[in-house]
User: Fold this.
Amino acid sequence: MMEERQNSSPLHHLHPSTKVLCLLLFLVWAMVFNHPLYHLAITALVVIINLIGGSFRRALSFWKFYLVIACAAVLLWSLFLDEPGPAYNILGRHIATSAILYGIGMGLRLISLILFAVVFSSTTPVEAFTYGLRRLGLPYRVGFSLSLAFRLVPSVYQTAKMVESAQQARGHNPRKGGPLRRIFGFVPLMIPTILYTLRSANNLSLALECKGFGLKRKRTSLARYRIGWGDILTLALFIVGLSASIWLRLKGYGAVIDRL
Amino acid sequence: MKDLISMWNKTRLIVLVAVTAAVYAALMLPFKLVTIIPGYTELRPGVAIPTVFSILFGPAAPWGAAFGNIVGDYLGGMLGWGSLFGLLGNFFLGYIPYRVAKPLVHRIKPGLWGTVQIILACALASIVCGVIIGWGLDLLGILPFATLGNIIIINNLLFTCILTPIFYRLLVFRSRRWNLHYTQVLGEDAERRSRTFGIGIILLTIGAVGGWVAGNLLSLQIIEGSDLIALLQQASGGGYFIEGASGSLTVSWGLSPAILMIIAGAILI
Amino acid sequence: MKPSLQSPAVKVSGLSFTYQDAHTPALTDINIQIPRGSYTLLLGGSSSGKTTLLWSLARVVPEFHPGEIAGKIEIMGEYNTSRSPQEMAPYLGLIMQDFASQLFSSEVATEVAFLPENLGLPYEELARRVAEALQMVGLSHLVGRDPQTLSGGERQRLAIASVLSGEAPILVFDEAKSDLDPAGRRQIDELCGRLCRGGNTIISAEVEVEEGAEADLAILLSEGRIVAKGSPKEVFARPDELLRCGIRPLDVTLLADEGDAPPQTVEEALQYLKERDIHPHPKAPDPKSAKPEGEVIASLEGVSFTYPRSDAGISDIDLSVRRGEFIALVGANGSGKTTLVKQLNGLLRPRQGNVYVGGRPISEYDDAELASMVGYLFQDPDHQIFHEQVKEEVGFGLRNLKLSEEEITSRTREVLELMELAELEEEDPYSLNKGQRQRLALASVLAMHPSLLILDEPTTGLDYLEVRRLMSAVEEMNRRGITVIAITHAMWLVARYTHRVAVMSGGNKVFDGTPEELFADEELLSSHMLSRPQIVELSLRLGRYCPTVEEFRRTFTWKGA
Assistant:
């Protein structure tokens, strides 16, 4: 019953818990090095994962964003890190080469984290995500609330757009004027949106209770995921990769500066 | 503190957690374009949502704010370390206001003193949220405290202090009509202030303001981590702090007493 | 009525209920028995207590909405007193009007599985129930789809399936059809019939009566009390009572003499009237109403529009609107009606073609200017209300026009009086009922003195009295020269109020003419699931066109009329 998804890649078939664990492992992995070359390797790995997961196109569509991130990281860290060693003098400021390299490394780190998040969210439906979290110990109600939050975002957004049209039809445009005007302009947009959402929330709570939500019984599930060889292999790859990286870093490789 | 757990037995509050999260995440979207530091923060009038929902929906707001942060990051493809500390910081942003502004629960129109209380509670929550996120990301070496911490705090202060009282006025009467106010769902127990409120609020305030100031001083290297450590060692009559810590470790170690104070204060209020 | 040897499905004795903080009871001394396997129609206007009665069966009151309850309720032979709404789920399924807010999963199958999952049923049983429920509502082919991508009718059927999977013997529908187009309504009616034949007990709350309703029992509620009970035929035969309760009676029942059993179908009416020697009035006026021939105030020329990532939209539409016209726009949901009218106030901009308002291209106007020319009333008034006071709400649009305070005050007073809201000007808009909120929304639009007024399904969710009140205000504005375009599914509204009607289908305008021309075209009507109001059908069968009962009485004469 659950197989009829339109998109399907090897990553779609992984057990949700595997994917959540891999995400957590990757969060650590991305922190191990700060040398740009090592980060380049990690970024390349995530690009490959995106290719396998079929989300490369989506990931690529954010390219402008990556560029901004990279520039901002280089700029910020060059200014904030006062490192010894070779340096440039730019506009009277002492800027260390190592700080620039560190900045590039950090830019790549952010990009690889985003790329991983893209492939994760593209290959893991919300229910699978919260199912994975539940299997790792998150209580059912908490998981339910989290997945409900995901479902409500588009409807809140739609409501907000509807409200915006209704206000626009009365000659009000929250996107015009100076910053302060805009902030106050969003009050007429937000209030009906929130009230509308609250009213539906009340109806939804009622519907949930009438559908037996919160009955003190053991809940069953139609969703069935099985752990396969793919899961074991994927997890093994991540664990080996991460351990090797930590070992390398402890041996003194992969760092421009001695910090995370 | 107990209501943070007991609320999970109430369907309405469970749904309100999701609503807080969804509204928080969705209302950030139109502003995603006004990015200050890409990937980490943007101009967010939406931060007034956790604070106003906190005063209205009590314990549903901290969970909602934390989830909202995850949802926003997930949908924007930004799930990462930032999310982890964002989760924690936003949790406090939704937690502090209702604990501090509890005496307001029965007043439909807050009045001048009530409005001042709301503003103070929001200011405190805003600083705590920024200190935690700034500290966390500096700790991991992702961004320096002086950039991110300050940006978050100033953005939070600006929007929560202006918008929360306005939103509260426009929403409180209506949410009570729908029986959505947290005291209507949880009963009278939820209205009582804890006996340790006084000491809690003092710890929280010192932790927040102290953390903000110290974070800036350390991050901008106006004082060295070793100075602060020496100072602390003197004060505590010798201790076991790591000597010669540098870079982000300075901020992380230097700020850890503030973070501990914030956590202790939050438990006590 | 079907025989039943067992205890009734529902037995309510002496039920009264008052909501917390309310001054008057929502229900007073309700006594009913509903046999197993029967179909009950619960009729009543907006605050008649229908929903509260249904909620009391499901224990939503007093468990979810607190208040004071008295009396006894037996469901399938057991008292429901000690149960929570959750515990009632296996006995009674509740389907609500607002179906969008009942759906929360990202997949059709998951949605339907939710209820039986909560009951803790084993996997095989879950799979069986999901498959059966989806088959019952005809959505088996959409099992893996995201509910948000379904049409309104499909979503309502999914909401029903998500309750059917609980396999409760009693199913309760609370105005479940009111947001649907005629095709969607028909599907729900057929489904209810099938469920009932399959042994379910059906209770359906409605604000409208229909010719030949299939129910076994009809109950008429007003102000929390039962005012009539019996077979639908018996209850429908009391048009005056229905009117008082905010229900529009069947047209033909209004033709009978006092003391006569009124006819209920067109056939019965024909026989009734022929027995009384019906013939056209010798001095019958020409029923064709004068069509306004003012100057063109808005027009669309070859306008096409498609939504991003979707096939929906409109293509190559020409439409010119003359001053003083009252135009209806009809057609199935998703046929492009709303997309079309949104071109006229700039909420959507055409991909191709031109839109003119007041003789100028629409692109030459700014938001405030356009808003003062073209008023737009959204389907749901709550999308626009945010102020704390009724008069502030009306003043909001006027402030955007930067008018003087005196002008704002005088215009506000004027429209609030027209809308019969003057006494409520200090109230919180959210304390008003739906009908009043809809009138407030209309007041805030009218205050801007638009020359063109667009109404998007303005009567959804209102009872007949509220509809009449709203529409008379609109009619009055139209008489004063404001041009009106109304989107609606209610054909009696088209017949009664409009000069002209356009039919939309699949993004194309397939008809544009007078209501009389539309109702004369049987093929067009049936291919677009449109129907003639009873009185139109009857008058056409008698060789004339009468859009209303009053018109019919002016046109024809018969013994005792």
About this structure: Chain B has one domain: 3-193. The beta strands of chain B are 35-37, 41-42. The radius of gyration of chain B is 19 Å.
